[in-house]
TrEMBL record, chains A, B:
Its cofactor is Zn(2+). Belongs to the Fur family. This is Ferric uptake regulation protein. It is found in: Cytoplasm. The gene is fur. Transmembrane segments: none annotated. One of its GO terms (cellular component) is cytosol. Keywords: Cytoplasm, DNA-binding, Iron, Metal-binding, Repressor, Transcription, Transcription regulation, Zinc. InterPro entries: FUR, Fur_C, WH-like_DNA-bd_sf, WH_DNA-bd_sf. PANTHER family: ZINC UPTAKE REGULATION PROTEIN. GO terms for biological process: negative regulation of DNA-templated transcription; regulation of secondary metabolite biosynthetic process.
Amino acid sequence: MPERALPYRPHNHDACVSHALADARAICRTQNARLTPIRERVLELIWQSHKPLGAYDILAMLGTEGHNAAPPTVYRALDFLLQYGLVHRIASLNAFIGCTHAGEQHRGTFLICRQCSNVLELATPEVSKAIEQAAAAESFRLDDITLEVAGICPRCQGDASNA
Amino acid sequence: MPERALPYRPHNHDACVSHALADARAICRTQNARLTPIRERVLELIWQSHKPLGAYDILAMLGTEGHNAAPPTVYRALDFLLQYGLVHRIASLNAFIGCTHAGEQHRGTFLICRQCSNVLELATPEVSKAIEQAAAAESFRLDDITLEVAGICPRCQGDASNA
DNA sequence: GCAAAATTTGAAACATTATAACATTTGCAG
DNA sequence: CTGCAAATGTTATAATGTTTCAAATTTTGC
Ligand SMILES: [Zn+2]
Ligand SMILES: [Zn+2]
Ligand SMILES: [Zn+2]
Ligand SMILES: [Zn+2]
């Protein structure tokens, strides 16, 4: 059995964060996009864990660190991060999560644990292919896919104690 | 080339509606569920077209016909219809659409036209299979799939005039 | 039939998520 | 500098969804 994916095992999460930030800086540099302090801070907050964060959660976190922001501040930062593929929006949760494939051309599949909330993003070409074929069979021109899978992650399946 | 799916061609939509209502009555009868007047009316309103309807759209429609309902009335009816698989929620639109496979065991794939808003629901076993395999590969226990495809439907592709 | 229990509906308030509109500041080019 | 565009601040408001408790209706056991 292959090693479990990062969200499902203990790991040095600081490395996740710094990797994500480094990627973001690189991507913005090559695209001449401005990763301003607010935008970077929002991205960093989103990456505090592998659980998706609501816009108002982010707002509250900014609040506790003295930056008294209003909703548009956060939504604008999120729009920017979405635009450059640095975060994804989870429609079924109205929440946002850091993209683990930033820069790569991909369509994300999100495995969302109902118990611990951790989200694993998969890049699944076979799934995308199947969806593209299904759309093509109806002569539908596909622009975008929202694919969110709810269930129980391997770690929570193991837990007898449903804390 | 096979005939286009219903939402993409002129058709007798009254037949869609009466079919859906008949199915709903049958399903509720066999499940000992009460398809009360409000619930049936909400289902009928949702089926007025193949475009998804927001909860507050439904609320407004009920309002114009004299039934002055409050939000919980609509949401409760929708919860009931969702529970018995008579409608689906489109997470990416915060809207609801009648299920075209009510009673059948299925996981819906929704093709959503960005231009005309019409939605086609597909039952795509190959896609479901691929998703189930991807989840299984991560030892993730799959409970539910949200699969929504945004794009342009064949009819709108044909339109030169983007009305 | 009839009373108790369960389900459904009504109504008001509230919570959460997201956007509109306009003023101000900041970064940058000429 | 100066002027323009992009980004941020600020206030208000829109859109979506839930909680709570009371009243009405339907079902069930007798
Ligand atoms: Zn991590
Ligand atoms: Zn991604
Ligand atoms: Zn129809
Ligand atoms: Zn369906």
